[in-house]
């Protein structure tokens, strides 16, 4: 199984972001991105072999991280027609970068073999709006339209999530080859037993 750690955006901001997912349907994307809440990954999906121990690590990590300010400044496209997407750009901060690096170092030390795609200094913080295949003929129009999509906003994330991913034993046209979902959500910066 693979897992990821992400900051959840607040509900008001999420409600303003999801219409962009609907807009992406005009370029051939599906709505699959709505299966998990809008988020900013601190650690992209990686393989974990001792999930119970990882869950304990996650709970401790969440207790020691304060709510995070997230600033968004537009959208960017990545990939191609076969596998690509649109994401809301998150302004890189020293604290977000430190949390990303801390997770990479600690997870590798404790669990070994936790390298994920895009880890490291080149990782771009983002909030995915849509992911998957699009209609190739519409990509030039999407790339031309993106600069006009307005998103200049700052919000605070006060929750941290574990997402889990697994290859489906029964792939189908609707759900694809990977099953995924939200496993756990915890408040940031709250010690056990406090609300």
Summarize this structure as a short list of keywords or feature phrases:
single chain; about 200 residues; alpha+beta; four-stranded antiparallel beta sheet; 4 helices; about 25% helix
What does this structure look like?
By secondary structure, the protein is an alpha+beta fold. It has one domain (2-187): Alpha-Beta Complex (Cyclic Phosphodiesterase, Chain: A), CATH 3.90.1140.10. Helices cover 27% and strands 38% of the residues. It contains 4 helices and 8 strands; from the N terminus they run βαβαββαβαβββ. It has helices spanning 11-24, 51-63, 94-111, 139-145; strands at residues 2-8, 39-47, 68-79, 84-90, 126-132, 152-157, 159-172, 176-187. It has a 4-stranded antiparallel sheet. A 4-stranded antiparallel sheet has the order 5-4-3-6, covered by helices on one side. It is globular and about 45 Å long. The model has no long low-confidence stretch (mean pLDDT 91).
Rg from alpha-carbon coordinates: 17 Å
Number of beta strands: 8
Which strand order spans the largest sheet, edge to edge or round the barrel? Answer: 2-1-7-8
Report the CATH architecture: Alpha-Beta Complex
Q: Shape, please?
A: globular
Secondary structure: helix percent = 25-40%
What ranges have pLDDT less than 50 throughout 5 or more consecutive residues?
Answer: none
Domain module count: 1
Give the CATH class.
Alpha Beta
> What is the CATH H-level superfamily?
Cyclic phosphodiesterase
> What's the quaternary structure here?
single chain
Number of helices, where a helix is a run of at least 4 consecutive DSSP H or I residues = 4
Strand content: 35-45%
Instruction: Report mean pLDDT, rounded to a whole number.
Output: 91
Task: Give the biggest sheet.
Answer: 4 strands, antiparallel
The CATH topology turns out to be: Cyclic Phosphodiesterase, Chain: A
N-to-C span = 31 Å
């Amino acid at each position: 199984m693979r897992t990821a750690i992400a900051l959840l955006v607040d509900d008001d901001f999420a409600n303003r972001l999801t219409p962009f997912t609907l807009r992406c349907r005009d370029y051939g994307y599906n709505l699959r991105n709505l299966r998990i809440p809008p988020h900013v990954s601190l650690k992209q999906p990686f393989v974990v072999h001792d999930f119970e121990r990882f869950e304990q690590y996650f709970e401790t990590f969440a207790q020691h991280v304060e709510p995070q300010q997230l600033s968004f400044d537009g959208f960017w496209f990545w990939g191609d027609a076969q596998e690509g997407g649109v994401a809301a750009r998150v302004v890189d901060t020293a604290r977000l970068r430190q949390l990303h690096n801390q997770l990479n170092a600690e997870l590798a030390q404790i669990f070994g073999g936790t390298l994920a795609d895009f880890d490291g200094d080149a990782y771009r913080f983002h909030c995915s709006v849509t992911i998957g295949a699009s209609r190739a003929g519409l990509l030039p129009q999407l790339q031309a339209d993106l600069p006009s999509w307005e998103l200049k906003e700052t919000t605070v994330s006060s929750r941290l999530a574990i997402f889990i991913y697994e290859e489906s034993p029964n792939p189908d046209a609707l759900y694809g080859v990977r099953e995924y979902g939200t496993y756990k959500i915890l408040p940031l910066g709250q010690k056990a037993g406090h609300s």
